[in-house]
Structure formats: structure tokens, C-alpha cells
Amino acid sequence: MTQAASSHSDSTAFVAVKKLTKRFGSVVAVNNVDLTLSRGETLAIIGPSAAGKSVLMKCLVGIYGADEGTIYLDQDDVSDTNAPERPKWAAKIGMLFQQNALFDSLTVWENICFRQIELGTLSRKAAKERAVELLGLVGLAQESAELTPSDLSGGMQKRVGIARAISTDPELLLLDNPTAGLDPVLSNHIELMISKIATQRGTTVISITNDMQIARTRYQNLMMMHDGKVYWSGKTDDIDDAHNAHLTQMLDGSSQGPITMRTGKREDGIFA
Ligand SMILES: Nc1ncnc2c1ncn2[C@@H]1O[C@H](COP(=O)(O)OP(=O)(O)OP(=O)(O)O)[C@@H](O)[C@H]1O
């Protein structure tokens, strides 16, 4: 994935982020971040609060443009929000937002196929059929289709959000904390479902999580962010006990600032 771990050159990369920086006033939310992923690869992004994880994801989906650096998706330059290639990518990216971003005034099925209804790419009848099919895929009963988000539990809302994110059969799936606030059993269930979707459809998945165990077991690659920077990135298979202990400490805040990982991959000059 990232330069340290990928065996692919940038010309074959599906996601290629180079020296990306995004500021809000004096806050450097994303600071000189590099990220390279091949098509069909999965990546977990972990890091403490305000690390820049969500802002990075919002740059990828096109909500924010790059202040510096570039974002290429399948070799299309989408660094700016108004890049000519951006509209094409709107349909090729599915995203689950941190708070699900479901519309309370719409039914579950209308939420799931919101985009298709708005753009008129599906009739309402076809959209409902598609939504019901997706409900089955995320493990919800078809009777849920006529409910509204406020009728659903947090876990069910997450599933509806994921169903909406995959409703266009996206090439790139971005998930901002798909298991936040859920109990471990449900978290595991949802992550298993995401792995299956990615494998069956060949989808490239980038997911933010606060759970090291899930990151290590369900994703091929891991990137740790802190203060807008990448502090570690590599294959999850390469994470040994020492990495795991240090990364977990950074994640839960019990380690302050830069740490030395003798066995770690050098990234951003932090690890020796
Ligand atoms: N729209 C915005 N305007 C101003 N500052 C912002 C905006 N969005 C994010 N930030 C700031 O950018 C920094 C990174 O925020 P981000 O949401 O990416 O963090 P995060 O790693 O996703 O954290 P969390 O896990 O708590 O969601 C934070 O300092 C945040 O306050």
C-alpha cells in the first residue's frame, strides 16, 4: 500500500495520494500524507481523535480539495473538488459517514437508493427492489425497508449506511468508523460482512477504525495517523508484538508523541 509496503508503481496504483496537505486556518488537519493502494486492496486507518483520519477520507471522496499535494484515483487527477474527473468518481465511490448521515424524513429504502432516485437512474419501483436486495446483503429483514432511521437501533442504522454506500456497486468504498459505538459481537459481524463484500466484488476498501484487533484481522494494510501525519504504515501481516503494543498505546493515548520502534518501518522519519 504505502510507499514502504507496496510493490506496485504509482502507474498501476488505484489510489495514489502524494504529499497531501489540508488546512483549516492554522490547523494542519492532513500533513504531507502519502498513500498508495492497488485495486481490490483493503486498508484500515487508525489513530487518536483529531488525527486527520476523517479529513483525509473527505479529501478522497471530494468534499475537500487538496491545499498541497495530489490525489489520483485510477490515474485521474481528482486533487481539486472541481476537477473535471470528479463527477465521474461520485458514482464510483461509496461512503459511510461517521454519523451515518441518514435522512430522517425518508424511509430506509429511500435512504439506501437516495442517489439513484435523485439522479433518476432507477425508477422508484426498481430502487425499492434494489434496496430490499441490499438489506438482505447487510443482514436486515426486508420489512425494515418501510421504517425510518429513527425506528432503528444504532447497529441497524450502520447497516443501512453501509447498504447505501455499496448501493452503486462502488469501485472504492470509504467507511468512517463502521463499527463505532457497537458491541464487539456486532462489530465483528459488520466487519466480516465488509470483508465478504470486498472479496466478492473486488472493491477497494478504506476504513477508519479504533479497534486494532479488527484492523489486524480484517484488513490487508494499516496506516496509523497522529496530528495529521502518517506515523506508521505497512502490511498488517508485518505487525509483530512490538508494533502492536506501540500502535495500541498511541491509539489509546497512553503513549505521548513520537515513539521508537526498532522493528518498525521508517515512515515520516519517526521510527528508527
Ligand atoms: N470543517 C472543519 N473546519 C475546521 N477544522 C476542522 C474541520 N474538519 C476537521 N477539522 C479539524 O481537523 C483536525 C482533524 O479532524 P478529523 O475529523 O480528520 O479527525 P479524526 O482523526 O477523524 O478524529 P475523530 O476520530 O475524533 O473523528 C481536527 O483538529 C479537527 O478539529
UniProtKB/TrEMBL annotation:
<feature type="domain" description="ABC transporter">
    <location>
        <begin position="15"/>
        <end position="252"/>
    </location>
</feature>
<protein>
    <submittedName>
        <fullName>Organic solvent ABC transporter</fullName>
    </submittedName>
</protein>
<dbReference type="InterPro" id="IPR017871">
    <property type="entry name" value="ABC_transporter-like_CS"/>
</dbReference>
<dbReference type="InterPro" id="IPR003439">
    <property type="entry name" value="ABC_transporter-like_ATP-bd"/>
</dbReference>
<dbReference type="Pfam" id="PF00005">
    <property type="entry name" value="ABC_tran"/>
</dbReference>
<keyword id="KW-0067">ATP-binding</keyword>
<dbReference type="InterPro" id="IPR027417">
    <property type="entry name" value="P-loop_NTPase"/>
</dbReference>
<keyword id="KW-0547">Nucleotide-binding</keyword>
<keyword id="KW-0813">Transport</keyword>
<feature type="region of interest" description="Disordered">
    <location>
        <begin position="252"/>
        <end position="272"/>
    </location>
</feature>
<dbReference type="InterPro" id="IPR003593">
    <property type="entry name" value="AAA+_ATPase"/>
</dbReference>
